[in-house]
Design goal:
Blueprint (H helix, E strand, L loop, with lengths): L1 E4 L2 E4 L4 E6 L2 E4 L16 H18 L7 H12 L5 H14 L9 H7 L1 E7 L2 E8 L5 E6 L2 E5 L2 H39 L5
Antiparallel strand pairs: 1-2, 2-8, 3-4, 5-6, 6-7, 7-8
Helix pairs in contact: 1-2, 1-5, 2-5
């Protein structure tokens, strides 16, 4: 479920994977709802064509958006191109948190200048809460005892909205075309039925 958060979207379900750092289970970066920076799989023109083709397939199969594995895969690939490097930010942030013996954060130059900042609470080696920010000051993830929450950046949200627009237009167009074809088939069938008994 996507939740509006002023200027971003947040995913509010557990995004934890299998690996751990300290007492923290690392996020599952393969999860549909958690993006991290990847190289583009194709050009934007090819993405557009793939999105349109996926929408047509989904409409024909009676699926819409996230009901379709193909759609979810395209969203992840398309959006991750503009995603921050969450995997590295979280990994480096946790490394710095666990190296710091203070329960409250101090400024980490590496994180501030290269990866953003981290705010956290911990007792000893037990991390209970952390916020991860990119170099633009946008919160990109939080960790709490219940797991991870991912926040979309402005750039990610804009790209995802663009994808939805392309997909929805193509899906609706395919639905209209399908209804139009059914009408033609039905009208032709009605004309050929002999009802004179």
């Amino acid at each position: 479920m996507r939740i509006g958060n002023d200027k971003s979207f947040a995913q509010s379900h557990l995004l934890s994977g299998m690996e751990k750092r300290g007492n923290v289970q690392l996020p599952d970066y393969t999860d549909f709802h958690l993006n991290t920076k990847t190289a583009p799989a194709m050009s934007d023109d090819k993405y557009r064509a793939a999105i349109i083709e996926q929408a047509k397939k989904d409409q024909e199969a009676g699926k819409f958006q996230s009901e379709s594995a193909g759609f979810r895969s395209l969203v992840k690939s398309y959006v991750s191109v503009v995603s921050p490097d969450r995997k590295n930010m979280i990994s480096e942030g946790l490394r710095a948190i666990y190296k710091n013996n203070n329960p409250e954060p101090k400024t980490f130059n590496l994180l501030d200048y290269l990866l953003g900042t981290v705010k956290y609470n911990k007792e000893g080696n037990d991390l209970s809460y952390a916020e991860f920010y990119d170099s633009n000051g946008e919160m990109v993830a939080t960790y709490s005892n219940s797991g991870w929450t991912s926040f979309g950046t402005k750039e990610e949200n804009a790209r995802e909205s663009e994808l939805w627009g392309i997909y929805n237009d193509a899906w609706n167009s395919a639905a209209r075309e399908s209804r139009g074809n059914q009408g033609v088939v039905n009208a032709g069938a009605a004309n050929s039925i002999d009802i004179s008994g």
